Every structure is written in structure tokens, then in C-alpha cells.
Automatic annotation (TrEMBL):
<dbReference type="Pfam" id="PF22580">
    <property type="entry name" value="KYNU_C"/>
</dbReference>
<dbReference type="GO" id="GO:0009435">
    <property type="term" value="P:NAD+ biosynthetic process"/>
</dbReference>
<protein>
    <submittedName>
        <fullName>Uncharacterized protein</fullName>
    </submittedName>
</protein>
<dbReference type="GO" id="GO:0030170">
    <property type="term" value="F:pyridoxal phosphate binding"/>
</dbReference>
<dbReference type="GO" id="GO:0030429">
    <property type="term" value="F:kynureninase activity"/>
</dbReference>
<dbReference type="GO" id="GO:0005737">
    <property type="term" value="C:cytoplasm"/>
</dbReference>
<dbReference type="InterPro" id="IPR010111">
    <property type="entry name" value="Kynureninase"/>
</dbReference>
<keyword id="KW-0663">Pyridoxal phosphate</keyword>
<dbReference type="GO" id="GO:0006569">
    <property type="term" value="P:L-tryptophan catabolic process"/>
</dbReference>
Amino acid sequence: MQVNKVLNFTYAGNSIVKPVCGLNAVPQEGVIHPHEFVFVYQEQDAQERRWQHLTQSLRERLCHYGLEMAILDNHQEPRQSSIAVVHKDAYLIVQSMAYEGVVGEFNLQHILEFGFAPVLTRQIDLLRTLNGLEYVMKTGY
């Protein structure tokens, strides 16, 4: 099982994870396991100002549900920005989101890195996922 380390350590070979809010759900040794990813949003050529606004919006929308966020900095693809939302019960949350119609596209590399969490690349998919995630967190998973 692949392990993703937090705070200036590498994950998935060549990425750095920077916590955005909380990280209470991450075990004390500071790692994020693939089954703890709720979803990952990736964007090519993200503008810094827009990316900061997106991060702030996600923080305001999600952190009060006990979800944690981290920015994944992939050195293999420096033009790609990624943000991950994690939770200790992510597997159950992802299953509940699937019942709400939130299903991501999967490939083997994503499953090895992020478990069964959807990996999103379009903003409309991010919005749908956020709406589904908020519904699941409000009503229970």
C-alpha cells in the first residue's frame, strides 16, 4: 500500500504536501494513506491568484465538517496544481457520494496514489463534488 506523507515529505514519489487546514484526521506519524482521500482536484497552468481564491473557498466550505485539505505539489509536472481533501473515514464518504451521483474517472495510477477517491480536472466536476460532499456531511454517511 502506498503511503502519502505530509509536511515537506514526499508522497507518490515526487510530490510535496502542504497542509491547508487542520490535518487532525492525519495519523500522528504524519502520513495520508490512499484510503483517506475524499477527492483530489488537479488543474493545469493554474494562476496563483485564482488558485489561492479556490483554496480559500474550499477551506471556508469544508473545514467545519472535519475534513482536512492539503496542497499536493508534483515536481514531475510543475505546471499541474493539485489540492486534496482527506478524512479518516474517506472510504465511507466516497461510497456515500457515489449514491449521490458523484463518481470520478479512475485509472490505475490514481487508485495507487489516492485510493478510490475521485480525481477531478474540471471546475464543474469540482462544484458537483462539493455539493454532493456537503450533502453527505450534513446528512451523515
